[in-house]
Indole-3-glycerol phosphate synthase
Amino acid sequence: MDILSQIVADTVETIKKRKQTLSLNDLQARAGASSHPHHSLKAKVAADPKPHIIAEFKRKSPSRPNINMNADPVAVAQTYEAGGASAMSVLTEPDYFAGAPEDLQAVRRAVAMPLLRKDFVVDPYQLFEAKAWGADLVLLIARILEPAQLAELNAAAQELGLETLCEVHNREELAVVGTTPVDFLGVNCRDLKKFSTNLDQLIDIVDDLPDHAVWVAESGIGGREDVARLEAVGYRAFLVGEHLMRNTDPGAEIGNLRGNPA
Ligand SMILES: O=C(O)c1ccccc1NCC(=O)[C@H](O)[C@H](O)COP(=O)(O)O
């Protein structure tokens, strides 16, 4: 079983348990009562031609067992926001990424930038969770969804007022997306078998990316030159995790990535 299949199998079990603790009906009521205003990344991207950094909070990952295990999500969020991040990605998956719903909820109370619930969404229940916890965007990974399932989750998320970031790794997965009106189309250049990243793949695929979504470059971005190279071929937003989580001054580095060195 590959790593994504393992994560998805465990996620399905986690959702089963959560449904026993909080029914879908009760969760829907909570999501409906959520008083968080919507913070739109789409609007930010439309208003500003400069590169947009989606700064990620990630303690660890399958490829990196210890990135920054003791990091405080609220302190990191405040630094990211002050540094000019357009949005923040918060891992909520517990077993492989040491994330938690409480991280997203705490960050929501502390900052006003758009928040991405970064998880392995396979069930509409997770969309209501995302809404109830204060997210503005959700990740939908093409590799783990059937085309009809992706279309349904995308429509359900947008109906709830969540923007969608659909992630692909290659051309084959673009077929899963088809004409589904996702808001953001992310290309992730991490090879999930070797755990290596190769930014050239993000460049090779651009001729086949659909125009209906904003393009997001994901994984392995390590400096201003990387952003500039990817921006030159049409990417408008950049999901950056490890590079910022290991940086001693992530706020300044976000400015640098955007082409505004301190
Ligand atoms: O990073 C992993 O090891 C990983 C393994 C399995 C599924 C997803 C994985 N990573 C998630 C991501 O896509 C990254 O967190 C994100 O693109 C940021 O990447 P980076 O800037 O390289 O931390």
Summary: The two ends are 46 Å apart (CA to CA). The domain at 3-257 is CATH 3.20.20.70 (TIM Barrel). The chain has one domain: 3-257.
